[in-house]
## 1
Amino acid sequence: MSVRALPDAEALLTSLVQQMRPHVSPMTGLIGIVTGGAWLAERLHAALGLKVPFGTLDVSFYRDDFQHKGLKRKVAPSDIPFEVDACDLILIDDVLYTGRTIRAAMNELFDYGRPSRIRLASLVDRGGRELPIAAQFVGANIELAKGESIELTRDAQGRLALMLTRE
Amino acid sequence: MFLSSNPQLNKNGELHHLLSIEGLPADLLRQILDTAESFVGVTQREVKKVPLLRGKAIFNLFFEPSTRTRTTFEIAAKRLSADVINLAINVSSQSKGESVLDTVANLAAMQADMFIVRHSQSGAPHLIARHVNEEIHVINAGDGRHAHPTQGLLDVFTIRHYKQDFTKLRVAIVGDVLHSRVARSQIHALRTLGVPELRVIGPKTLLPSNVDNLGVHVYHDMAKGLKDIDVVMMLRLQNERMQGSFLPSPQEFFKFYGLTMEKLALARPDAIVLHPGPMNRGVEIDSVVADGNQSVILPQVTFGIAIRMAVMSILAGN
């Protein structure tokens, strides 16, 4: 089994910043999906110099697989420290796959208010969509075999890295 | 009478019913508290609702009247988007001679997903849990003198909210421990979560004779019992206990065991005061204390909803 070279997460983050910069205003609200998306939102928020504080979402209470999987062990409280109503939002996730997490996130967001717009940024798009959802900002497209998945990790210094896992 | 294996857990060791805190591992209690933490945020939003239990039918089976507890379970279920059906059974089928199990079998045939059971007889929720089919979850909302697990959980949640670390606390439970299912659930929860010093304070007639078997220290004098205490958990003195041989009079009880500012001053200055409600002001607690800045009685009510949301969603997912 060959170890596939994954792109450098820090370089993908830089690419996301460059893509997003022309399309954000200081009043754009970033919302990171726990856990990887929240790390990214924190970094993007600083790099883009946004005024509105970034928010985090744990979509566990909105997932469509609750009936099969139940509740995960540790649900982080969602935290959106700004008014969602009429706000221009960008959802941030680490790996975009089926689109079901994004659907859950949008459902949750609408329980906070009616945003004026929601866009999506993802560090990695691995294809395999099961819902009509597309990202406006993507760090890299990566094809994965069945049973493989990618995870974002963060070390003690805050450096981000991608990790390939196999079932 | 209980089976050797815990009847509350499924074969994977996950919580299937919540009947009693006794015998539940600390890890499971922490899971409930952590999940409730996330629901506190939900209850503070504009839309205080998540779609988790959409389409589920939850029956409040109250064989003993209790407006407050029933309401908090109802609110919790509605905030999870479940459909809630309230049944006060003492006034319907029981008076026609239908047995508890017949009532439950009928409701199960109506595709119930969860039963919240309050009963004056200890063990009634266990009986129901043993006889329902395995898709149905049962939550004990108070049975006789036995247990009131969601109350015990919301109390420890409140303590954790204000004091963070259980392993450094001195906690006193004050009043009618003998008749209190709340006290039993509190004692099991606090011991499981590692509270090193747990005291019960009350007159001899209102403390069970074997209470020290539960690992608590017994005091009959508030001045001694409240010394260095971080958390004071008051119990409700039930009106029906005030007659007969248990107590001379409510006034007498208040004099010795009612929580006044003077008595509270004997505890640590940052001690918090809990009460499961409804309070008898001037009997077990003075109004000045109940409404004072060390009282966390109203936050208990708010947290109670989050705890019940957590228990329902964990059960429904297992």
## 2
Amino acid sequence: MSQSQENRFSSIADCRRDFPALHQQVHEHPLAYLDSAASAQQPESVIESVAHYQQRDHANVHRGVYTLSHRATEAYEGARDKIRSFINASNRKEVILTSGTTESINLVAQSYCRPRLQPGDEILITHMEHHANIVPWQLVCEQTGAVLVAAPINDAGELDIDAFDKLLSDRTRLVAVAHVSNALGTVNPVEHIIRRAKAHDIPVLLDGAQGVPHMNVDVQALDCDFYAFSAHKMFGPTGTGVLFGKEALLEDMPPYQGGGDMILEVSFDGTTYNELPYKFEAGTPNISGVIGLGAAVDYLLSVGMDNIAQHETRLLDYMTQQLGNIDGMRLIGTARSKASVQSFLVDDIHPHDLGTILDHQGVAIRTGHHCAMPVMDFFGIPGTARASVALYNNRDDIDQLVDAIRKAQQIFS
Amino acid sequence: MNAIDINQDDELRDLYRELILDHARNPRHFHKIDDATHTAEGINPLCGDKLRLYAKVDGDVITEASFEGSGCAISVASASLMTDLVTGLSIHRALDCFAEVTGRLTDPEHQTGHDFSINLDKIRALDGVRDYPSRVKCATLAWHALNSAVRGQSQPVSTE
């Protein structure tokens, strides 16, 4: 290993210090937090930025003529600029601040799809989607008579790309695909998917909730039309997130919700809508959450997305290997290209029982269907245990996980 | 690797008692009743527990109770213990048990009524879940399904 690589990895190891929540005992064991795919812990800098705003700068944005409102607006809009640069959107009008991935997808379903869809039109997703990338499309299909089509996956949890290609047709009006599967960890071949969809002139939405925290995302290089993600999975606060959309598409879309801030002029004869991005941001936004998201972007950039991806890939490989050494282990999701997540089942121990026993060893994992019931149906299982790694995890966390699983096996033996 | 002394962890042992593990591994009354008079589905979306409860009622007496489905050890053991207990009870007394068990597991202030005379010793094996708020729903799922079935409600019950 070269000197520079050593330095880089020592700096990643140091990241753990930045996260106050990680330094505690749970049931008299050090906390091994392996559930960042559900919600990631926040670094001190994010917590501080929110506290600073609450203590010194709080006022409503885009309204007041006084100093505090200027400060709040500056911090809020400053965060938008950071996000724009982080995902390389071509301009700030393309960065819509929402309550999270779920709202971002619902916005596209209701504002982009609903006015366009005719009976018999199709929306193409995959079998591995999170409920947030299924149910909004089901709703708009019910409203319009359109049909939701799911491309199949294989036993490794990979998209069947040939089947996907065949399902693209002149009836397809939108393709909506997870960048990274939350239940399986599969990194989808989004470049291929986008290229194929573009050949049919079909716009593509990527559910990036599990993508953005783990890898470089460049929406221009990807050439996706929409990209949705959440702050709390990338070390920011809950209740805020982003919809990136191409300006031309967003311009053509009617507002999603009505209210303050999204208008230019209101009279009882009619209302003129505000320009992008404000047209889609009705009401007082989650100002502190967005400021925290801006700080989270700064944090990720200070560590470096390539360093994060490299660290997590090594850790995920180690975890998969260590889990695989356990007798009675069944790994769910064994795609060739993966990020962050490993789902599994041990012997015939129900994931929920496993989760409780692991908690007693200080190990926090997710158990259940991971809001991806069709994935569970595909594998014929009610749910899985899922461990996910983030930039602050290390091998000790994995070793603690493995020891705790062995203990569960003893209890259930 | 050193063997872990699982007896050191009394709290976990309190949750996963031998009786619970036995009923989870070998659930009693784990089948469908083809001529059931009452049935209801119970769903715990948090962990994916899903069971269907069957009861055969003659007059006012539950002559047979059973269940099918899949779930965690706590929910399966609870359903197994419950179907064992309520077989032979009147609906009225079974509902008293429902109130007693759910009350004990969910309400720290719960006090058993003076006229409650049914032996719940085995069900007490589930008392360990009181320390696990997220698991109380697993332990009460079968009981909610029973309540729904004998009251003739057709909607699946959910513990969410």
